[in-house]
Each structure stands twice: as C-alpha cells, then as structure tokens.
Amino acid sequence: MNKPHMIQSGDGLGSGVILLLLCLCLPTVAFGQQLRFESAGLLPVGNGPTGLAASDFDADGTVDLAVSHVFDNAIVLLHNDGSMGFSLGQVIPTPLNPGALTAADFDGDGDDDIAAICRGANSVIYIENMGGAVFASPVIIPAGLDPVNLVAEDFDSDGDIDIMVLNNLTNQLTAIENDGTGSFTVLGSSFIGILPTAIAFGDLDNDGDRDAVVSLGGQNVVLVLQNSGTALVPAGTFATGLFPVSVEIVDLDHDHKLDVVTANPASDDVTVLFNSSGSQISFVPPVSIMASDAPVGAKVLDHDHGLGYDIVAVNFDGLNISLMNNDGVGGFSAPQNIYLGLNPISVLVADLDNDFDDDLVVANLTSNDISVLRNTTPVPVYPGTNEDLILSSGVNGATPSSQDTIKEVHELDMVTVELLSPNGTFDGVLSGIGAQAFLPAFPPLQPFPNLYLNDFGFGAIVLQTAGLAPGGESFTFQIPPATITLSVMLQGASLTPTATNGIIALTDAHELRIRN
Questions:
Q1: Are strands 295-301 and 310-315 parallel, antiparallel or unpaired?
Q2: Do residues 502 and 494 touch, judged by C-beta distance below 8 A?
Q3: Span 5-44, pLDDT tens digits
Q4: 113-125 residue pLDDT tens
Q5: 443: cis peptide before it, omega within 30°?
Q6: What Rg value do the Cα atoms of the chain yield, rounded?
Q7: CA gap 225, 201 in Å, rounded
Q8: Phi/psi-derived region of residue 56, left when phi > 0, alpha when psi is between -120 and 50, beta in every other case
Q9: Has residue 484 got a pLDDT over 70?
Q10: What is the spatial distance between Cα 174 and Cα 221, in angstroms, rounded to a whole number?
Q11: What are the DSSP E strand ranges found in 439-514?
C-alpha cells in the first residue's frame, strides 16, 4: 500500500470545501438503558475503609486507587492492572483516623500526590508521590479542631493547588496555601455555618472564575460563596434535604449552567438544585429524589451512554447504592439499588478499565472491604455506509487505527486521521473528513428512537477536500485548549453517484472525547 498523501492543517480548504449535513456525525446511543454494572471484585482491604481517591499514581496508563482506613490509621495503595484487577501497593502509616482524601499534583512535578484528613489528630497530611507510586512519609499540617472534609483547589489563583478544610464541630473553614512545591502554610480559619460537611467548586455564574458550595448539615442548606475575582463572598443559602453531607456540581439539564447535588442521610433523599443564575447566583426550588436508607454521598456519572449525567447515591444503612437515570432535561428515574457490603460510606467514579465509561468503587466501612463495579453498557457505534471507504485515527504519533473508534484526547494533543479506499473504488473522487463538536447528546431524532442529534452541536467543518489519492489522504491537527468536556465526531465521506445510495459514501465515525 502506498503511503497516504499528507495534508497539514490549513491545506485543502477553500472554494472546494463542502458542508456534510445531517448524514455526517450522528451518534447512535441507546435511550434509558438501566443497570449495566457487574461485580469486578469484593476486595478485603483493612479495618474501616472510608475515603477513596483515584489517579494513575504509577504512570502506567491505568487508574489506581488510594483507600484510607480509619481504624488502621493507614492509607493503602491498590495498583490496577488495566482490567480492574488490583494488587496491594504501599501501605502508608498516618496520624489518627484518616478519612476523606484527594489526589492532585501539589508539587508540580507531573504526578499526583495525596492529601487526607486525619480527624482524630486535627490535621491534614500531605503525602508526596516521589515517582512510580513510591510515596514519602506524610507531612502533618495542623488543620483546626475536628476536620471532616477537604477539597484541592487553587483558591488564590496563583497556578498551584491549595487545600481547604471544613471543621465540623467548630463550624469553620480553614484555608491552607501551597507555595507550588508542596510546602503549605495555614492562612487561618473563619466561621462558615453550622456543622459544615462538604465543599465543592465550580463556575456557577459563568463569569470565568470558580465559586464554592458548602453543605451545612446543621442548617439543612448549602451556602454559596461567589468568587468576586479577589475573594469568596457569601451569596446566600439554599434549602436541601435533612443534614446534607456531600456536594456535587454539574450541569444536569443541558442549559449550560452548573447545578448542585447533595446527599441527605436524615431524609433519605438526594437534593438537586437547578441553577437559574443571571448576574446573581440563584436556584429554582429544590427537587427531592428519594434514595434508599441514609445516603451519605452522591456522585454523578454517565453509566448508560445516555442523555447526560446520572446520579449514584451510597446508602450507609441501606447497604446499597442507588442509581437514578437522567432523562436529559433534569428528570430522574426512581432509584435502582445494587446491594454491596456492610455500611457503604463512600463511592468513587472513574474509568478503571480504559473503555471510556464510568466504573464504580464503594468503600464498605463495617465489612472492611471495597466493592468494584464494572460498567458493562455497550459502547456506542457510529456506523457509516459500509462501502470501500475507511477512516483511521491516531493520537500523538500512534499508528492510526480504523478499529479503535473512540479515543480520549486532551488539549494540545496531535491527532492524525487517514481516509482510504482500499480497493480504489473512490480514488479520484471528491472526498473529505468532517469534524463536529458535541456536548452530551439529546433529544432523540424521530422516528429513530436510538439515534440522537445533539441540539448543541457546533463547528461542522470539512477538514480537507480533494480527489482522493491512491493510497489515501492524511490530515493532522491539534486539539485546541478547551474549558468544557465535549466530544468531536470525525467521519470521512465521498460524494459520487457511484455510491450505493447514489449520493454519498460514509466511513464509520470516530469519536474524540476531550477530557482536560
């Protein structure tokens, strides 16, 4: 086979450019698919597993786990073999009662470190990843009385990741500043509200900076702290269920505004606050979704390749997790329960087997194990017309493949796509490779119940058009910086009356999932 003719970015565009319309880049997804998880293992891990964090700690291309053990006073590393098989890694001794933890690159060396609450020692610990998932001894940082939760966030906008801690019994928020090397300074504490339990950051008012939401268990509300550009300023409290203990921030109804989700163990429900902000941050009245018994955490995931982010709640007394399917506009199904170990206390969402969907890990406090759940939802297929026309794609120098049609990419990655007619059917024919960006797909395109055209698709272009050369054409481009998660659909086409349908031949489409 001849080497494909190379066309670099910008070549081949001009008066010959055509726009490939609705026949190009229409994703096919199954609507309303329900439970699609299977157990990938129940792993004994030690006494009182409580906190969970995920990162590729050893830089081998797979997501590993860190688990805190409140009764063993240790954090345990579990190495992933890429197929959700986990082996014991380093056991890191900690001060008294480690709980909530997070993974982030605190020292700017390119790998993720760990920070964790040690509630019984009134401290936060910073544990540096020395490389290859070999961790240094914990550095103890005083964090005030009764620290209960933390978040890693660049709250001073200086380019490094700082830490904020919630102090439950003293009703305070403690700010801990990072100098960029993993050296921390406690700036001080301030009153935040009665019994704070969780904190999350997101741009609630779409002004380009990140605001904060704090759940206040003693007040049955969340407190919003609006980022003025120089400070976090209280912007109101908003009602939730009883004793909210977790906060998630995500757009659930496709209106380009971030909504808020809390888990409320005293009312056995999950609260969704839909964002109605203009210049001031505001929410419509809270929506309650019943879970099981005592939900102590809620996360968002897309478990069914469906219409947007779904919700998973972990139910401490129910001994299960509850899944609520999103209908694409913020309506949720009744909970579907998966029973696990004894007293599940936290849930983590991550792609653990590199198949581009969300798997689950649940820490079971009383049975001293973690449940690993594999997402088995079928991967979406984007079919072409199955003629003598093939599209291949590769990232950062990898050999382009026609079989691996879904790829995760990041900003500034280099993507190569190749268009080829192996049998020469379309050689010399006007051909192109189309690209279009999509946010999560909805609503259904009637009368095809499994076919979705995203109303928010944008940027439909043809990367190159020419008479297809013998041996194919190749095009290389760079993923631009992006501030939102989206997908780019690529599909090759040849316009010719000799196509089976008399108009156009299409390759199978490829999806580039941009994750930054």
A1: antiparallel
A2: no
A3: 333 333 322 222 222 323 333 333 333 445 689 999 899 9
A4: 999 999 999 999 9
A5: yes
A6: 25
A7: 9
A8: beta
A9: no
A10: 20
A11: 458-467, 473-478, 486-495, 504-506, 510-514
